[in-house]
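FW: tagging you since you asked about this chain on Friday. Here's the raw sequence from the shared folder, copied in full. Didn't touch anything.
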Amino acid sequence: MSSFPGKEPRLDQWVSEVTGEQVEELSGIAATQPYSSKGPWVSPTGWDLLIQLAERHRLGRFDLRGNPDDVQNLAAAGIITEKGKLTDEGEFLVSPLRAPRATVSVSAQYGQHLSGLRVQVGGSGALTAAGPSYHSLRERDARASDPGAASEDGELFQLEMVEIEAVPEMLGRWMGLGPAWSLEMQPEQLSAATLEARFADDMTPAPAEADDRFLRMWHEPWAVFTLSMEPGDFRIGLINAGAAGFYNYGGVDAENAGLQTRPSGHLWGTLVAELGQALSQ
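HL: got it, structure written out here
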């Protein structure tokens, strides 16, 4: 039996031409490992009720009467009883809210679509409240371009408890992190106004001095993230530029912004290291 593959991997023609080396196409790998969860979905109001439950163990009369849909949803998920008292599963779920060791927050924008992720790390696990992930936002954007598509009403968050060690992987999947050929480009600085315009409109012209590598990144679909961790002051701006990989963005001064490649391996290492740093404080 031959140990050689029956088919050669597909090459990334653009990167191969630029680098002069034959390199494998990597852009489809992230799509094979998207973020997924089987946890219940809650509204922002439902999340607020969970915060109250972490403090009081049960909901009061006014909460029960004023939020019937959210109460019914939490009860159907087994988090509370019909009378608003936390179940054993609910007590475990909200435990990181009572004594958080670290908090991770991510905001996301993909075209006109917004989302967010919040992670409360406690002593026995991490409670995640996840809005639509990178791949879900891409699908939502594609549906929005269809005149017959149904509109999206409101934003929901999917709850799940994960092991603390699994948080960096969960963050990476949610943001669409995967292998990519990250190439240095020029310029590494541009006007902040131009970058802000590109966030809102993918038809924004690139800087006049942009090289081919910059233009490739510029014309890919962008998902823009702001990631922060507490305790500590870690905060980073990231762009997922599809096949072109990830990029850091941030202000240089009042008028200019930096935009630099962020290799996937470096970003993964940052997620692991910064979460460890936050937990150690």
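FW: Residues 264-279 form the longest helix (16 residues).
HL: agreed, and The first strand starts at residue 41 and ends at 42.
FW: great, closing this out.
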